[in-house]
Specification:
Bound molecules: pyridoxal-5'-phosphate
Shape: globular
Number of domains: 1
Strand order of the largest sheet: 7-6-5-4-3-2-1-8
CATH architecture: Alpha-Beta Barrel
CATH superfamily: Alanine racemase
Order of helices and strands: HHEHEHEHEHEHEHEHEH
Radius of gyration: 18 Å
Length: 243
């Protein structure tokens, strides 16, 4: 006889997942603290967001059990599904490319959308948020490494885009985000985003956050001023190949 799986037992992580995620989170938190210390920054100035894309919801639940509240997805459908299955006690972030026809799935559910890179997308998000009587917090994604393969607005267009976004009701731009190109030294890219943030912030003081740094480069990002790091494999282990 086989037990009928129910939603609760499905979401309950196997002990090995629990232990693995908890141990990796410990390690990552320590490495963030060390990098912050090295740069003379406060550990509390850096928020860790655990990116669960490619991992099952049991990994998300394991992270929450280990005290990790901020989690992220890069696809609207996955965000909806995992948010529903994992239940309360999490703050979801959206870090992927956002299509206008997916805006309704993300607005309200995501506490922070990291990937606003054009005016029409900001307008769609603001419109949806207004209808729901919300203010959606967002970051503007910048292509700070001038990588043709990456999303994000051009560095030179950033101030104008932020100005357009902040003029809309229903949306609040609170910082900048970037993903550096694959095979370059990320440090100058991170430094460039920080300088740009400083410039934008001098005009628009609410633009504070720097979302930068992934598994391969988060310590460098923290040294260069990241206030949010987005970590997948460092928290959850090697990502299973896409089905
Ligand atoms: C997948 C992803 C991450 C996390 O990547 P890792 O290399 O697993 O740390 C961070 N940011 C974005 C935008 C992503 O798509």
């Amino acid at each position: 006889m086989t037990a009928q799986p129910d939603a609760r037992s499905d979401a309950r992580p196997p002990d090995a997942v629990d232990a693995g995620v908890a141990a990796r989170l410990d390690d990552v938190r320590r490495r963030i603290a060390v990098a912050a210390e090295r740069a003379g920054r406060s550990r509390s100035a850096v928020t860790l967001v655990a990116v669960s894309k490619g991992f099952g919801v049991e990994h998300v639940v394991a992270a929450r059990r280990a005290g990790q509240a901020d989690v992220a997805e890069s696809r609207a459908q996955e965000l909806r599904r995992k948010a529903r299955e994992a239940g309360p006690g999490l703050r979801w972030h959206f870090v992927g490319r956002l299509q206008r026809n997916k805006v309704r799935d993300v607005v309200g559910l995501a506490s922070l959308i990291h990937s606003i890179d054009r005016v029409d997308l900001a307008e769609a998000v603001a419109d949806r948020a207004r209808r729901a009587s919300r203010v959606q917090r967002v970051l503007v994604q910048v292509n700070a490494g001038d990588d043709p393969a990456k999303g994000g607005c051009a560095v030179d267009d950033t101030i104008a885009l932020v100005a357009r976004v902040r003029a809309l009701d229903g949306i609040a731009c609170q910082g900048l985000m970037t993903v550096p190109p694959m095979d370059v030294d990320p440090r100058p890219v991170f430094a460039r985003l920080r300088d740009l943030r400083d410039d934008v912030r001098s005009r628009f003081p609410e633009v504070q956050h720097l979302s930068m740094g992934m598994t391969a480069d988060f310590e460098t990002a923290v040294e260069e001023g990241a206030t949010i790091v987005r970590l997948g494999e460092a928290v959850f282990g090697p990502r299973p190949p896409a089905a």
